[in-house]
């Protein structure tokens, strides 16, 4: 089925406001043409991120009322631990307030200056935490994973030959951990196959290097495995997940994605010596090991969310909804990245706005047009986010791809909302020649896209 219907019905609603074009133009002016500066209340369909934006179920909301807010040994912690062990298997589990603090704890205890950390593609916070600990992040995704037109079923796979070469070049002593991100967020939410996970596992064993998964979208990855890897066509999602984690020594997790909650995460592993070091640091920066920066009720919502996310009807709807949006856009001639990944559709801004040179930020210009014309908030992943002004020559350097990401929150928007988005973008595509380029008025020295201010090129 192309577009499986929502396997839930709506019991509580949150009104969203349609604004006028004039109001949106005003908002954009105030925001310096940066949608991060626009109040969420002034957005009609918010596709800025799928992180922490999920709708919780009645079962999760009921779980919040069962919160045990004891400082030590809250009953929700034991349920959290039981739920994670059931799926992930790991014996040592550390709750954290989100994914990046799990990364920070792990890297603080395993990395030393001058180390190298391989991954398919490091997510921004992962990369930043590796760098913060003096090590070098190395991206080793297969070449197909970087080609916006290549229809490979597992574009998130790691290139095993490149991995072995890196280890042989640097020596296993310089590589204290191997990471693999499922699904590969920075590569477009593309999945990794079990076959590839087994190969990475074999290399890790051979060189005695611990192997951790960045597990934020593990359930979405498992759904793609069931769909695309024949060996698993008849295996349940939970069994695929157990198989996947059986090859890893541990994982970091942001529960704000496939935990189906608004805040939370964890670090998990088998190694008790490593656990003790990380738990001691946890007490210093997050909290006691049975709450780790979260309330008891948050732990309960995660314990329940992790089980709900494995429901195959939910995943068929989830992946199907994202895929259906991609299909509607594609059929209207809107250029998108293919195949569509698990959590987002990416517009190819260079092909959408061929009249704009990269120096005029085509992806940001398109992001501004989506808000101005339709009240849709997306995020630019292109020259504004990754471009840099060379401090010596004053020259701008631009990334390979100019993308606009439409990230779909889980269980939040209906199929009619998605039709609205597809229709609005198709209309904007018809009038694309009228979209003007942008120039920078202000930029911060680091992560400039969050605070940049821009104006139209006249
Ligand atoms: C979101 C994300 C993280 C970081 O998690 P936060 O909860 O935002 O700190 C790490 N890795 C990947 C792949 C992510 O998508």
Helix content: 25-40%
Point out poorly predicted stretches.
none
Distance between the termini: 47 Å
- Major beta sheet summary: 5 strands, mixed
> Could you say how many structural domains there are in total?
2
The main sheet orders its strands as 2-8-7-6-5
Report the C-alpha radius of gyration, rounded: 22 Å
Q: CATH class of the largest domain, anyone?
A: Alpha Beta
> What is the total tally of β strands?
16
Total helical elements: 16
Classified in CATH, the superfamily of the largest domain is Type I PLP-dependent aspartate aminotransferase-like (Major domain)
CATH topology call of the largest domain? Aspartate Aminotransferase, domain 2
CATH architecture classification name of the largest domain: 3-Layer(aba) Sandwich
Shape: globular
Q: Average pLDDT across residues?
A: 96
Features:
alpha/beta, 16 strands, three-stranded antiparallel beta sheet, 2 domains, 458 residues, Aspartate Aminotransferase, domain 1, Aspartate Aminotransferase, domain 2
Compact description:
With 458 residues, the chain is of the alpha/beta class. It is 40% helix and 13% strand. It has 16 helices and 16 strands.
Layout of SSEs?
Elements: H1 21-30, E1 45-46, H2 58-64, H3 75-88, E2 92-96, H4 99-110, E3 116-119, H5 124-132, E4 136-139, H6 160-170, E5 178-181, H7 194-206, E6 211-214, H8 218-228, H9 237-246, E7 250-254, E8 265-269, H10 272-285, H11 296-308, H12 312-331, E9 344-348, H13 349-352, H14 362-374, E10 376-377, E11 379-381, H15 383-386, E12 388-389, E13 396-397, E14 403-407, H16 415-430, E15 438-442, E16 453-456
Helix pairs in contact: 1-14, 2-11, 3-11, 4-5, 4-10, 8-9, 12-16, 14-16
This protein binds pyridoxal-5'-phosphate (PLP).
């Amino acid at each position: 089925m192309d577009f499986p219907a929502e396997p839930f019905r709506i019991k509580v609603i949150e009104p969203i406001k349609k604004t006028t074009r004039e109001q949106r133009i005003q908002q954009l002016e105030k925001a310096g043409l940066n949608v991060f500066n626009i109040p969420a209340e002034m957005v009609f369909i918010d596709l800025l991120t799928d992180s922490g934006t999920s709708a919780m179920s009645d079962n999760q909301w009921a779980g919040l009322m069962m919160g045990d807010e004891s400082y030590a040994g809250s009953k929700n912690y034991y349920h959290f631990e039981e739920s994670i062990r059931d799926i992930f298997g790991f014996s040592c589990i550390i709750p954290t307030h989100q994914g990046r603090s799990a990364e920070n704890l792990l890297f603080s205890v395993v990395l030393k200056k001058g180390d190298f950390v391989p991954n398919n593609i490091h997510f921004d916070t992962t990369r930043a935490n590796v760098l913060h600990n003096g090590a070098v992040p190395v991206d080793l995704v297969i070449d197909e994973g970087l080609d916006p037109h290549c229809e490979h079923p597992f574009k998130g796979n790691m290139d095993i030959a490149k991995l072995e070469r890196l280890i042989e070049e640097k020596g296993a002593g310089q590589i204290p951990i191997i990471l693999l991100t499922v699904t590969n967020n920075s590569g477009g939410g593309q999945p990794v196959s079990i076959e590839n996970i087994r190969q990475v596992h074999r290399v890790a064993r051979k060189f005695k290097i611990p192997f951790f998964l960045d597990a934020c979208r593990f359930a979405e990855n498992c759904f793609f495995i069931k769909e695309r890897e024949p060996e698993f066509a008849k295996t349940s999602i939970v069994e695929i997940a157990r198989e996947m984690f059986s090859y890893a020594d541990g994982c970091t997790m942001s529960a704000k994605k496939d935990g189906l909650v608004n805040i939370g995460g964890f670090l998990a592993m088998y190694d008790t010596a490593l656990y003790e070091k990380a738990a001691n640091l946890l007490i210093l920066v997050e909290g006691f090991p049975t709450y780790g920066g979260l309330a008891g009720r948050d732990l309960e919502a995660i314990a329940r969310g992790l089980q709900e996310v494995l429901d195959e009807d939910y995943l068929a709807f989830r992946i199907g909804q994202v895929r259906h949006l991609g299909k509607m856009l594609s059929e209207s001639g809107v250029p998108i990245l293919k195949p569509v990944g698990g959590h987002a559709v990416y517009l190819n801004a260079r092909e959408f706005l061929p009249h704009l040179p990269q120096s005029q930020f085509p992806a940001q210009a398109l992001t501004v047009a989506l808000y101005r014309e339709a009240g849709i908030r997306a995020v630019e992943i292109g020259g504004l986010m990754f471009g840099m002004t060379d401090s010596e020559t004053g020259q701008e350097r631009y990334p390979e791809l100019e993308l606009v990401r439409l990230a779909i929150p889980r269980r939040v928007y209906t199929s009619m909302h998605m039709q609205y988005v597809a229709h609005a973008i198709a209309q904007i595509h018809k009038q694309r020649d009228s979209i003007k380029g942008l120039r920078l008025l202000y930029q911060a020295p680091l992560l400039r896209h969050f605070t940049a201010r821009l104006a139209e090129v006249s």
